[in-house]
Amino acid sequence: MGAGKTLSALLSTRVVEAGLTIICCPNAVVGGIGAWGWANEITNAFPSCEVQTKTWTPTWRDPMGQAPRYLVMNFEQFQQPDSEARLVAFLDTHSIDFVVIDEIHYAK
């Protein structure tokens, strides 16, 4: 804790100029209004990036995709009965450039 792993992962996505990054993490660290987490860290480090959480149908502000995009998903999003179909539909319309798996020992 406190070693800068989150920021290092985010910096890596910018170094390789990833357009769309998917972050898979425990629900407790997805982040959001008033809570620490990936979404807040992305916004703090790179304010011009677009961030969406917990959805297979993100609504991006920039329809042309010029701003880097981050989709933060909790592990449970991959375990729902319709997850496979929703993931396939997402992959049909999005090209993923970078994947971060946080706390991989929680992934099953």
Keywords:
alpha/beta; four-stranded parallel beta sheet; 3 helices; 4 strands
Give the strand tally. Answer: 4
Q: What is the radius of gyration?
A: 13 Å
Q: Given the helix and strand composition, which structural class is it?
A: alpha/beta
Q: Sum up the overall morphology in one term.
A: globular
Number of helices: 3
Mean residue pLDDT: 88
Main sheet overview: 4 strands, parallel
Low-confidence stretches: none
H-E order: HEHEEHE
How are strands sequenced across the largest beta sheet? Answer: 2-3-1-4
Distance between the termini: 23 Å
Strand content: 15-25%
Helicity, in percent?
Answer: 25-40%
Describe the structure.
The chain has 108 residues and is of the alpha/beta class. It has 3 helices and 4 strands, in the order H-E-H-E-E-H-E. The protein has a 4-stranded parallel β-sheet with strand order 2-3-1-4, covered by helices on one side. The longest helix has 11 residues. The two termini are 23 Å apart. 21% of the residues are buried.
Concise account of the structure shown:
The protein is an alpha/beta fold and 108 residues long. The chain has helices at residues 5-15, 38-45, 83-93, and strands at 20-25, 50-53, 69-74, 98-101. Helix content is 28%, strand content 19%.
